TrEMBL record, chain A:
Swiss-Prot/TrEMBL keywords: Cell membrane, Membrane, Transmembrane, Transmembrane helix, Transport
BP terms from Gene Ontology: transmembrane transport
Residue span, ABC transmembrane type-1 domain: 94-304
Protein name (database record): Binding-protein-dependent transport systems inner membrane component
A Gene Ontology term for the protein's cellular component: plasma membrane
Entries under PANTHER family matching the protein: BLR7065 PROTEIN, SPERMIDINE_PUTRESCINE TRANSPORT SYSTEM PERMEASE PROTEIN
Highest classification ranks of the organism: Bacteria, Bacillati, Actinomycetota, Actinomycetes, Catenulisporales
Membrane topology: Multi-pass membrane protein
Automatic annotation (TrEMBL), chain B:
Keyword Cell membrane: yes
Protein name: Binding-protein-dependent transport systems inner membrane component
Keywords noted in UniProt: Cell membrane, Membrane, Transmembrane, Transmembrane helix, Transport
Annotated compartments: Cell membrane
Species per Swiss-Prot/TrEMBL record: Catenulispora acidiphila (strain DSM 44928 / JCM 14897 / NBRC 102108 / NRRL B-24433 / ID139908)
InterPro entries given in the database record: BP-dep_ABC_trans_perm (IPR050901), MetI-like (IPR000515), MetI-like_sf (IPR035906)
GO annotation, cellular component aspect: plasma membrane
Membrane topology of the entry: Multi-pass membrane protein
GO biological process: transmembrane transport
Residues in ABC transmembrane type-1 domain copies: 73-265
Length: 312, 281
């Protein structure tokens, strides 16, 4: 986070003050950069290649089996015409927005900030315990989190058990409100990250700044709004960008918990992309959806790089 | 904030409220984990939370067979260990010239790398599948390991370049004067100095890969090649709805390595490990 931003800063500032490398024979310019070759080859083959290929093949009717697999035909904008008139896709875009806003921007971000703020000045023991519990949810592999929540929210799961104890009637949450279920599971899984970011950011707020605000008689809320939040603004922006990018590509959690169902009720774009390409064997169409996801991710990633870039 | 200035009754009350809310939040986070821990020792576990009547390790015994647990865990070790090693070696090689030499391409390349760290890897899995089919690499563990390594390369290059930037260059200059090549300088001077950072990147990449379900799920097909991340899921599909206790035990077995590794790293690094979370995909 801050470390990354600092890296960029150093990169821009340090470039000027760096000593030159040894004088070498001509032609050394290329050999010097030879160690970059393995990384470049891997990134071109497995990263840039597939991206370019997805651009190309989303204009074809490529399929996993049958005629389209042997000799894909050029279909022009057909996939995209289908894409934007397909109710599943518009639904998928909408669900992805709901998922990102609900579980990342609101859920993880606000809960992480709240925990970090509440931890200020608590005893070491309490901070360690609460922090440890929240982080352990984050450390578990994604498949395991999904299975835990599948059990937790099921018809006879723990949540209904708790609700029954309070005299409320339970329901099969994964069936009745699949989006709410995956959003809550993802908040549980990801909040630790925001909490760690905000803990680090709040540690950097000088104590005397807070003291001063206190002497001015600013009450807690106003102090938070007028003093503390403006001071940690860079961390807030970076954190929001990062969790947005992460949440945008969540597949496993949703796939294991609901498989995108019931029907398409929780088919966010990554799940829809998988269903089209592998369940319905329409690689061309699935690729068009993945291109859409890639473009959305690229826009956010671009903003993120711009935000990190100091005004040079 | 509490602990500073004068301690008033009002402040004490506010402190108690904060503590109360924190305890509630922690309890909410703990609840799903409680089910996992209790169920893995309960051979008649269901999806509801209950204390095991006869706590036993029967569930673990049931899943600790070669086919169910050991081979997938071993596959995961090969796949993730291999990909983490490739990542660290390739990223270190790439980071060195980026840190030490000026060139026109350096800054654009670095920004491209940073940009790539943000791209949703999920989105390229369909075209990658197509690529693997075409290159006949589907169901190949080495190819899957190299692909996994590629996905964590941008972030690893970024981190390791930062570590190398912090190594003063004059040590290398002295060795250059003695006629050492940059690669020799990298190996004998820079690498020993950034070894702690490299091992963090190594462990971190391993943790990432260990938790990755989608990549092996798409690129590997033979049951005997699948890592634990996928076999836990297939176990759930086959027996999960009945053998919840075994599913919980299997999940605990599969989670253990990353939990232990995380503890080691966070102990060793203190708080410095926190930014590494940025790459969690």
């Amino acid at each position: 986070m801050a470390a990354r931003a600092q890296l960029v800063g150093e990169e821009l500032a340090g470039a000027a003050g760096r000593t030159t490398s040894p004088r070498r024979a001509r032609g050394a310019r290329t050999t010097r950069h030879l160690p970059l070759a393995p990384a470049l080859i891997m990134l071109f083959l497995f990263f840039l290649g597939p991206v370019l290929w997805s651009v190309y093949s989303s204009f074809t009717n490529a399929a996993l089996t049958g005629d389209g697999a042997q000799n894909p035909q050029w279909v022009g904008l057909e996939n995209f015409r289908r894409l934007f008139s397909d109710p599943n896709v518009t639904n998928g875009i909408w669900l992805t927005v709901v998922f990102v806003l609900g579980s990342a921007v609101i859920g993880q971000n606000l809960l992480g900030l709240t925990i970090a703020l509440l931890m200020r000045g608590r005893s070491r023991w309490l901070r360690g315990t609460v922090g440890g519990i929240v982080v352990s949810a984050w450390v578990l592999p994604e498949v395991v989190s999904a299975l835990i929540w599948y059990a937790f929210l099921g018809q006879h799961g723990t949540l209904n058990q708790i609700m029954k104890a309070f005299g409320m009637s339970g329901q099969d949450w994964l069936y009745s409100s699949p989006m709410l279920a995956v959003i809550i599971a993802n908040v549980w899984r990801g909040t630790a990250f925001s909490m760690l970011v905000y803990n680090a950011a709040l540690d950097d707020v000088p104590a005397d700044v807070q003291e001063a605000a206190e002497l001015d008689g600013a009450t807690g809320w106003r102090r938070l709004w007028n003093v503390i939040l403006p001071l940690i603004r860079p961390s807030i922006v970076t954190n929001l960008m990062l969790i947005t990018l992460q949440t945008l590509s969540v597949f496993t959690l949703i796939y294991v918990m609901t498989a995108g169902g019931p029907g398409f009720a929780s088919s966010t774009l990554p799940v829809l992309m998988y269903q089209q390409a592998f369940k319905f064997s329409e690689v061309g169409y699935g690729t068009a959806i993945s291109l859409l996801l890639l473009v959305i991710g690229a826009v956010f990633s671009f903003i993120y790089v711009r935000v990190l870039k100091p005004e040079a | 904030m509490a602990g500073m200035g004068i301690d008033t009754p009002r402040r004490r009350a506010a402190g108690l409220v904060c503590t109360g809310i924190l305890v509630l939040i922690a309890a909410a986070f703990l609840a799903p984990l409680v089910w996992l821990v209790l169920s893995c020792f309960d051979s008649s576990a269901q999806t509801s939370v209950k204390l095991p009547e006869h706590p036993s390790v029967d569930n673990f015994r049931a899943v600790m067979t070669t086919d169910l647990a050991w081979r997938p865990l071993w596959n995961g070790l090969l796949l993730c260990g291999g990909s983490a090693l490739i990542t660290v070696v390739v990223a270190t090689l790439a980071a060195y010239p980026l840190s030490r030499y000026q060139s026109r391409f350096r800054k654009p390349f670095l920004y491209t790398v940073l940009f790539a760290t943000g791209l949703p890897i999920t989105a390229i899995m369909v075209p990658v599948y197509g690529l693997f089919v075409r290159l006949q690499l589907i169901d190949s563990m080495p190819a899957t390991a190299v692909f996994l390594a590629t996905t964590s390369l941008p972030f690893a290059i970024w981190l390791i370049k930062g570590f190398i930037d912090n190594v003063p260059i004059n040590l290398e200059e002295a060795s250059w004067v003695d006629g050492a090549t940059p690669m020799v300088a990298l190996r004998h001077i820079v690498v020993p100095l950034i070894a702690p950072g490299m091992s963090v990147v190594l462990i971190f990449t391993f943790i990432q890969a260990w938790g990755n379900f989608f990549v092996p799920f798409i690129l590997l097909q033979s049951p005997e090649k699948l890592p634990a991340s996928v076999t836990v899921f297939t176990f759930f599909g086959q027996y999960g709805a009945v053998a919840y206790g075994q599913l919980a035990a299997y999940s605990v077995l599969y989670s253990m390595p990353v939990v232990v590794l995380y503890l080691i790293v966070s102990r060793a690094m203190g708080g410095a490990f926190r930014f590494a979370g940025a790459a969690k995909g």
